[in-house]
Amino acid sequence: MFFILGTPRSGTTLLAQCLNAHSQLAVPNETDFIIPMAFVLDRVKDPAVGRPMVADLICHSAQYRASLADYLTHEEVRALVAETPYQAWALLQAIYGAVARRAGKVLAGDKSPNDLNFLRMLVKVGGLPAQAKVIHLVRDIRNVMVSLRAWQGPSDQDDYFARYWCSHNLYVKALRERQPDTYHLVRYEDMVQDPAGTFSAVCAFLGHTLEEGMLLPEHRHPRYRKARHHQKLYEPISADRLDAWRTELPEGLAAHYERQAREGLEAFGYPLSGG
After folding, report:
1. Model-level pTM?
2. How far, in Å, CA of 42 to CA of 121, rounded?
3. Handedness of CA 101, 103, 104, 105 (dihedral sign)
4. How do residues 75-86 score in pLDDT, each as one tens digit?
């Protein structure tokens, strides 16, 4: 399996949907069991006790019905957990291997932006070993905040989310950047300005070649059509919003985000406004 790591509103859904449109790649809708499973594996060492907990967690997680249930029944999940070593990476490989087979593809990946909040726990229990392939998607925090504010309205996220963006993305970069065979950094800005080039490189990283149809909006899953914050998913990939933060953020907010996320902005090549 492979992971797509990125903060919310970074374009992870677009990336995942384009990969899912590939004839050999599957990416289920966003899941929510991986980090909770990691906590169980860390806290409950007895497999006889932990296996039923892990199986129940997966099958009854809030997102199961809209994600893994498209591929695996409760009974199939329980059988996989029962027959797989009680280890994070082994369990993830078993589950996503089964997803790929059910989809008629050869490789499946996970896209769960909120996992970044507790990624250290997944690392601790061995769920993100050196051989696990990671696609790390980063987007300019100023445009991330434009998107968050349009979706959720003004909130206290103005005072903390940029710090999270900075620390979480720098952690992934520091953790994996010395492993080029299993770490691939993608900037959202490059993805929307050069979709073919970006996805050609991503596909090569995963051991496959670009298929032109994977970039077409009509090949994206219809489940997101009613979600207001995903309306652009059904339009051609476009770079027309890259400077939105310059005109759509209230005065002073861009500088506020830059103060919180300066190290990350500089590390990922985003110039400061100087405001």
Report:
1. 0.95
2. 8
3. negative
4. 999 999 999 999
